[in-house]
Design a protein that fits this description.
- The chain is of the alpha+beta class and 801 residues long.
- The chain has five domains: 131 residues, Bulb-type lectin domain (Agglutinin, subunit A, Orthogonal Prism), CATH 2.90.10.10; 140 residues, Bulb-type lectin domain (Agglutinin, subunit A, Orthogonal Prism); 127 residues, 3-Layer(bba) Sandwich (Hepatocyte Growth Factor); 118 residues, Phosphorylase Kinase, domain 1; 206 residues, Transferase(Phosphotransferase), domain 1.
- It is built from 16 helices and 43 strands.
- The chain has a six-stranded mixed beta sheet with strand order 36-40-41-39-38-37, sandwiched between helices.
- Helix 8 runs antiparallel to helix 10, helix 10 packs antiparallel against helix 14 and helix 12 packs across helix 14.
- The radius of gyration is 30 Å and the shape is globular.
- The structure holds 2-acetamido-2-deoxy-beta-D-glucopyranose (3 copies).
- One 2-acetamido-2-deoxy-beta-D-glucopyranose (NAG) binds next to strand 21.
- This is Receptor-like serine/threonine-protein kinase.
- It comes from Olea europaea subsp. europaea.
- It is a single-pass type I membrane protein.
Length: 801
Amino acid sequence: MAFPVLQFNSFLIKLVFLLFSALFAAGQSECNVKLGSTLSAGDTSLWSSPSGEFAFGFMPLQRSDNEDLFLLSIWFYKIPEQTIVWSKNEYPVPEGSKFQLTNEGKLILYDPQGKEIWTVNNGGSTCAAMLNSGNFVLINGDSKYIWESFREPTDTILPGQILGMDGNLNSRQSEANYTKGKFQLSLQKDGNLVLYTIFLPTGDESSAYWATGTVSKNADFQLIFDEAGYVYLKQGNKNIRNITKNDMGSPQEFYYMARIDYDGVFRHYNHPRKNYAVGTEGCKSSWSIIQNTPEDMCGAIVGDLGSGACGYNSYCVNSNGKPQCFCTDGYSFVDSFDKNKGCKPNFQLPSCQQNGWELNMDSIEFKELNNTDWPLTDYERQTGSQVDESRCKEFCLQDCFCAAAIYNGNTCWKKKFPLSNGRQSKDLNRIALIKVPKGHMTNTCPKNKDQSTLVIIVSVLLGSSVFLNFLLLFTILISFFFIYHKKMLNLQFDSTTFGVRRYTYKELKEATGGFKQQLGRGAFGTVYKGVTPSIPKRYIAVKMLNKVEPEGEKEFATEVNAIGRTHHKNLVNLLGYCHEGENRLLVYECMSNGSLASLLFGISRPHWNKRVQIICGIARGLTYLHEECSTQIIHCDVKPQNILLDDFLTPKISDFGLAKLLLAEQSQAALTNIRGTVGYFAPEWFRKASITVKVDVYSFGVMLLEIICCKSSVEFAMGEEEEALIDWAYDCYSKKKLNKMVENDEEARNDMKNVERLVMVVIWCIQEDPSIRPSMKRITQMIEGVAEIPVPPRPSVFSSS
Ligand SMILES: *[C@@H]1O[C@H](CO)[C@@H](O)[C@H](O)[C@H]1NC(C)=O
Ligand SMILES: *[C@@H]1O[C@H](CO)[C@@H](O)[C@H](O)[C@H]1NC(C)=O
Ligand SMILES: *[C@@H]1O[C@H](CO)[C@@H](O)[C@H](O)[C@H]1NC(C)=O
């Protein structure tokens, strides 16, 4: 019978095949890159690991000029943020460059003309492999690795990777520039694990700012990143020092990496393995920091030589392990895109020459900074009980060499240029007195080297006539606020210095063509379109704040400073301000895509996935305001009109920090009569309860609901049924009729599981009792799918009304 014979034959063939592959597997099982394979810069070719988690190839660099450059790299391939973990960073190459595993078994990088740029000069390999660990290896006939990317790390190490003695990691220049930067992690021959600043371009070690101090004669040290995700120092086979001390989740759930970042901090990160994405490309989870080494970079990096963490003339503030850099009033950033490069004075340096401003006592003023110190560069000191702050100022005033003075209660130090290692921290009991020429601050305009992004126009607020009513109502509310009460928001701001520029009224009048083109009007004032006089031109949004009780210059400056200190992808950037007499103006970057309100309630509904990404961005921005910036900021007015969108529809929160500025005197009592009308306000606004960050959580919940349904809560309330959007939402949820909420929205209806999750988040946010509402951080985790969402209780306010 033919049939069984045939079967037998195929069985034989399989057997022989299996046998063969088993034989081969011993030698070549890992090979996934054959001799002769080539990658080209500019096309999509890459070599990926069997799991698809890592890829080897050419990564395009984000650059300002026109030439496209590519970096030969290994990166996390499965996660949205394709993070580079290894690169040939000395050789960014143009399009058309090639990387080949030659038939002779060499790895060669060619430029577009075919010239060899870099060769792994081993030869004799039989294949190469991109391994699941993230290691790229050349394999020889004996299955030995003759070259490994793990043995030539750049700035990152991964689980399974070992840094041997004499091994280094070098930071990059900046977030997007992978060229060798100014920090190095080094496991020295003597066993000491040290973080160094280095001199560029030679790369020689300059000064150490952190070390384990583990020195030993018979040193046999390794820095281990084990498969479980821990980083530790091993001597012989003993773990002698844990670098990772914090909980980091299980390796089944997270990816890990450790990297010496461009700010000099060696950070251990994790990232959820699964993108529990809402929608297919929905919410992008991101890397979280598990451990910062050192924990306070600002305080750690104090050497006799060098500028400190933030460059010369700047000062550094530790914000959750991240050194943030600031210039004092009268100085501006050398490079406004890289704030670690220090600050330059906006005036001529004192030189003790005739006619110098520093010789005319009347033209000098001192800017004060509490809790701030430049510990080095002093050249003279006065001590004694008779030395007080005004004496200290006087010493510096009378000395034309003096750039600044530091005063600590009984000692006064005179400082010379350039100031270095500046630091501000609550535990520094010193006042910095910075000498600047009066009125000089605004005369020099920091050169704006912003290149490509021609930012276009904000169009804030104002969609429908319904909204106008709402606005009117809100304005009345605000007036009530001012007529009555005392301070209520207890936010602490501790400094009066600026990372933002001060403009004159005249400048802004010119920039806006006499406040001609109105972009919108909001609770706090009117917004005008403007354009900076600098070349290339840059569009700005100038907000003229409503006139209220004249407030002290100092207080205004303090608030503006707090706003100016915030830097987050999801916050609108404050560029500057103006305060002259009654005129108080704020200058923001301009956003090209208008407000979320106009997008959501406009003609064409934005895609579901886009909406989900917007939700994630707003949640992260609010988390930053509440928990991550150096002083907590309660927004108090979260609503779609205050979310602006950039070219890429990245949401940016605007108007934050203004509540403190303008609602300082407000009345809760005035609100009690208008209960329920103003959709975004948490119930505690209408009671004698204290206002906390949870009011923003409530407003976020209402807005989240609007984003899900693309319905405005204000409009909804004006409808026939007199039913609030949120009551309706809870009904839909509890009666399992969620698809009513996304009628006519095909994309959302195909993603009902996530609609439900988001609605559950909404219900958590709008709980009447603020203490039951989760924190923004928790909410962000819920949205990202990192945290479970428990079944929410019924928000009681609605059942009772
Ligand atoms: C990165 O910075 C270096 C030094 O500042 C500069 O020479 C190089 O052009 C930059 N690279 C890119 C890709 O922008
Ligand atoms: C490192 O941490 C582990 C727990 O994660 C602990 O068992 C061990 O004793 C620590 N080692 C040192 C040297 O601190
Ligand atoms: C510095 O602190 C003192 C006392 O704590 C306070 O009176 C003063 O206003 C502060 N100065 C600034 C500039 O914030």
